[in-house]
Amino acid sequence: MSRDLPADARRRVVWAGLAGAGILLATGGLSGCGFALRQAPSFAFTSLRFTNYVATPVSRALQRELAAAGIQVVNTAAVAGQPPVQVVLAVLTDQRERVVVGQTTSGQVRELQLRTRFRFRLSTLSGKYLIDETEMLQERDISFTETGALAKAAEEQLMFNDMQNDIVQQIMRRLAAVKSL
């Protein structure tokens, strides 16, 4: 480093060098520990049949996500000439709940709990269970005022959509964890 630079400039050069070294060490450390960004899931099957509750919000979102991942999704019974599917995803429960958890002394609702419950199981056509009956449950608390009922209804819908997306992503990860049929 040149002595003819002011002390201020020398300090900045040293700090910039230390910051660069810190970044190199941090990225080198992350790659060495096995850290990697989440990749698109890979599945042990290429076709799947949905049974029961095929038109509910979570089921439809899951079907769209599976189709986007390259899985052939079938909602109907087997048809002659159609290749058989590899696995069956039985949707046992898909429901949304809205429960009052807080009231004022005059009985007005002040707090609600929103729940999305999804139960399913995955099996082969021969009946072998790949994923036993599993329940996914998301809960969110929301305050409520009668004066802002319209805004709260929109907020509820956003929360239900958020819970639905969380459940779909969790199910996708569980389906990707199945390694063999």
Explain what the structure shows:
Helices cover 37% and strands 31% of the residues. It has 181 residues and is α/β, with parallel strands linked by helices. It contains three helices and five strands; from the N terminus they run H-E-H-E-E-E-E-H. The radius of gyration is 26 Å and the shape is flat. The longest helix has 29 residues, at 149-177. The protein has a single domain (47-177), classed as 2-Layer Sandwich (Double Stranded RNA Binding Domain). It holds the Pfam family LptE. InterPro entries: LPS_assembly_LptE (IPR007485). Keywords: Cell outer membrane, Lipoprotein, Membrane, Palmitate, Signal, Transmembrane, Transmembrane helix.
Which strands sit side by side, in order, in the main sheet? 2-1-3-4-5
The tally of beta strands, per DSSP, is: 5
Provide the gyration radius in Å.
26 Å
> Average pLDDT across residues?
84
Oligomer: single chain
Low-pLDDT regions: none
Count structural domains.
1
Biggest sheet statistics = 5 strands, mixed
Q: Please identify which CATH superfamily we are dealing with.
A: Lipoprotein like domain
Q: What proportion strand?
A: 25-35%
- CATH topology name, in short, is Double Stranded RNA Binding Domain
What is the CA–CA distance across the termini? 64 Å
Large-scale geometry: flat
Structural class: alpha/beta
CATH level-1 class: Alpha Beta
Measured as a percent range, the helix fraction is 25-40%
Total helical segments: 3
Membrane topology: Lipid-anchor
Organism: Hydrogenophaga aromaticivorans
GO molecular function, one term: lipopolysaccharide binding
GO biological process, one term: lipopolysaccharide transport
